[in-house]
């Protein structure tokens, strides 16, 4: 099973010299050694599909990442839910 949850690109202005990256979040159950569901976060350069990094996160690690993003949003004054 593989279920795509969401994907997009980063928010750098096009005039910026930085590489544009894309991200995707999915749920998978194909980790033979894990014996469990995983949240997969993939980050790669736009136009270079298959050459990025894929994080296979256990639920506890995915919650930790969610908490870190929540904390970062709070730090910049964006702690209200959308």
How would you describe this structure in keywords?
82 residues; 1 helix; 4-stranded antiparallel β-sheet; alpha+beta
Termini separation:
29 Å
Structural class assignment: alpha+beta
State the strand order across the main sheet. Answer: 1-2-3-4
User: What sort of overall outline do the alpha carbons produce when their principal axes are compared?
Assistant: flat
The average pLDDT value, as a whole number, equals 89
> Ranges with pLDDT <50 over ≥5 residues?
none
What fraction strand? 35-45%
List the total number of helices: 1
Helix content: 10-25%
Order of helices and strands: EEEEH
Major sheet summary line: 4 strands, antiparallel
Assembly state: single chain
Q: What is the radius of gyration?
A: 15 Å
**Domains, number:** 1
Kindly state the number of beta strands: 4
Describe this structure in words.
It is a single chain. This protein has 82 residues and is of the alpha+beta class. It has one domain (2-7, 20-75). Helices cover 21% and strands 35% of the residues. The chain contains one helix and four strands, in the order ββββα. It has a four-stranded antiparallel beta sheet. A hairpin with a 7-residue loop joins β3 and β4 (53-57). The longest helix is centred in the last third of the chain and has 17 residues, at 59-75. The radius of gyration is 15 Å and the shape is flat. It starts with a strand and ends in a 7-residue tail after the last helix. The model has no long low-confidence stretch (mean pLDDT 89).
SSE blueprint and pairings:
Layout: E1 2-9, E2 21-28, E3 38-45, E4 53-57, H1 59-75
Antiparallel strand pairs: 1-2, 2-3, 3-4
